[in-house]
Amino acid sequence: MDRRKFFKGVGLVAFAAIVAPTTDLKAVDFRATKPDAWEADKTTKGIQALFGATPVESKEISFKAPKLAENGGSIPITIKSKLDLETIALFQDANPRSLSCVFSVPVGAIIEYDFRIKMRQTAFVTVVGKVRGSGKLIMTSKEIDVSIGGCGG
Amino acid sequence: MGKVKIKAKEKKGVVKVKAMFTSLMADKEEATKKGIEAAYIQQIVATVNGTVVYEISMSGFMSENPLLKFKTKGGKKGDKMVFTVTDNHGKTTTSKKKIK
């Protein structure tokens, strides 16, 4: 009886260790934790799958992107925010799957991320951020015009 | 997976990092069209002195040269920044760069 209880205890601890929130030392691996989010085809579905809630439009997260992208294969995006966000995700409705990338932001990081994405066609791009601590979801979105499809299309 | 080229410079306590790399960045649809296997970089983690300063999970819909740039306060001149790049097949490459 004692041995069984002991093992159960160990199992519980192990489970808790896996489920427990990650600290700065280990980056969150979104592929392992939220595989469904990567398959969602539309932005709204992707947001639900990744965050499980609906974000609120906010001016405290912003991103820079060209209004017209001449080359859909390389569209520069800069995401900025002064808030202490723990997660930032970029979605778009141009590609077969909506989630382009996710950042997990370490404590004390400066949120100014540059990167380039591909979009097959003109579509809305949405950036969603999750505030550390409160878990509040904020978002901002823009439409980007794409003149040449960048996905071999 | 292509090569990763990292530039890291510290100015007034803020480290600006630029990571350029070429990778096929072909997600499933594109790969099927081209008749090859889906190949793209899935995750990049940057650490300085063991602390994570940047983490991005990506889909195949990033550009072939995503030209990632970011700023962090978590390092200073002389520190080594380590980039761990994982592709969709689970293969990992590590690159080190000293912050200038």
Overview of the molecule:
The complex is a heterodimer of chains A (153) and B (100). Chain A is of the alpha+beta class and 153 residues long. Chain A has one domain: Immunoglobulin-like (Sandwich). In chain A, strands 1, 3, 5, 6, 8 and 9 form a 6-stranded mixed β-sheet that branches. Chain A is globular and about 70 Å long. Chain B is mostly beta strands and 100 residues long. In chain B, the strands form 2 sheets. A 4-stranded antiparallel β-sheet of chain B has the order 4-3-6-7, with no helix packed on it. In chain B, strands 1-2-5 form a 3-stranded antiparallel β-sheet, with no helix packed on it. Chain B contains 1 helix and 7 strands, in the order E-E-H-E-E-E-E-E. The chains are: A alpha+beta (153), B mainly beta (100). At the A-B interface, strand 6 and strand 7 of A face helix 1, strand 3, strand 4 and strand 5 of B.
Compact overview of the structure:
The complex is a heterodimer of chains A (153) and B (100). Chain A is of the alpha+beta class and 153 residues long.
Draw up the topology in text:
The complex is a heterodimer of chains A (153) and B (100).
Chain A: H1 2-19, H2 30-33, H3 43-51, E1 56-57, E2 61-64, E3 68-69, E4 75-81, E5 85-92, E6 99-104, E7 110-117, E8 123-131, E9 137-146
Parallel strand pairs in A: 1-9, 3-9
Antiparallel strand pairs in A: 2-4, 4-7, 5-6, 5-8, 8-9
Chain B: E1 4-11, E2 14-21, H1 28-34, E3 41-48, E4 51-58, E5 68-72, E6 80-87, E7 92-98
Antiparallel strand pairs in B: 1-2, 2-5, 3-4, 3-6, 6-7
Approximate shape of chain A: globular
**CATH topology tier name of chain A:** Immunoglobulin-like
Give the largest interface.
Answer: A-B, 39 and 34 residues
Query: Could you tell me the number of beta strands of chain B?
Result: 7
- CATH T-level fold name of chain B: Immunoglobulin-like
Q: Average pLDDT of chain A, to the nearest integer?
A: 84
CATH architectural label of chain A? Sandwich
Radius of gyration of chain B: 14 Å
Multimeric state of these chains? heterodimer
Following the backbone from N to C, one meets helices and strands of chain A in this order, namely HHHEEEEEEEEE
* Helix coverage percent of chain A: 10-25%
Q: Mind summarizing the main beta sheet of chain B?
A: 4 strands, antiparallel
The end-to-end span of chain B amounts to 26 Å
Tell me the fraction of residues in β-strands of chain A, as a range: 35-45%
CATH second-level architecture of chain B: Sandwich
Poorly predicted runs of 5 or more residues of chain A: 14-26
Helix and strand content put the structural class of chain B at mainly beta
The whole-angstrom Rg of chain A is: 19 Å
| Fraction in beta strands of chain B | over 45%
Q: Structural class of the helix and strand makeup of chain A?
A: alpha+beta
